[in-house]
């Protein structure tokens, strides 16, 4: 039922070829509209899970870890609420941003879930302060020390108050490979880039990832991630020599993955919170939810086909 990345590119990149017909465009829009129904279905399920997830108190020994897992899930849930409002393919740029965020949340949750210690949560917690120091230092460097406008004076105050302790924390949590005495701000809380984390997630949780998503995170990253960025960043790769139908088809694919990744985030979070007694029921719920999504998608597409104006093909 769902198109893969290769198919999307084949049918959408039409440089030097005739453009899609109005009928093809309408059909692509219908597929996107049918996929929006799944966003609402999955968002409603996450809404039902929210009280259960929020009711579980973090354990004192791994407080930062447990807090981080819940915070990442809340962000995934917030994106699904936003995506529910982006119910048109003209929002493909924003939909792609949600898709990328949900991939990153999935990676973070796998790494947090598979670390039984507080270490990962501690790193994620402290990255926030490292980020703030980096932002403050860049601001001050832009204006020059002593020339920072009063409206931004807190940046200099923050550096004076926090730089020594944050640099010490950086050396401890993310030591420089060649010079451990050097304080470095990492790209991510793990100290690696995203693809490095993707590979680590596959290594520790690969079977479960494939069972939920149908492929490894590394395969998903290599086939989808760069194309997401084309539609988010200012590069012209996302618009050059592309037919209008590309954006409708890209929306179908992105919305499908947003649903799968959001549900994967929910599955990990509920499993991490040790709902052992209910796990069989939860597995049944997840299977039924996916079945209902597929049924709704098929029904909406049949309704669209039935409502099309008579044509020579239909006669």
Short structural summary:
The protein is mainly alpha-helical and 315 residues long. It is built from ten helices and no strands.
Write a structural description.
With 315 residues, the protein is mainly α. Helix content is 71%, strand content 0%. The chain has helices spanning 5-12, 22-55, 63-85, 92-113, 119-143, 153-173, 194-213, 217-230, 245-272, 279-307. The chain starts with a helix and ends in an 8-residue tail after the last helix.
Q: Termini, distance in Å?
A: 26 Å
Helix content: over 70%
Number of domains: 2
Which shape, going by the Cα principal axes?
globular
* SSE pattern: HHHHHHHHHH
Cα radius of gyration in angstroms: 23 Å
Structural class: mainly alpha
Number of strands: 0
Average pLDDT score: 90
Strand count, sense and barrel status of the largest sheet are:
none
Q: How much beta, percentage-wise?
A: under 5%
Low-pLDDT runs of 5+ residues are 1-6, 309-315
Supply the number of helical segments: 10
Structural key phrases:
single chain, 315 residues, mainly alpha, 2 domains, globular, disordered N terminus, disordered C terminus
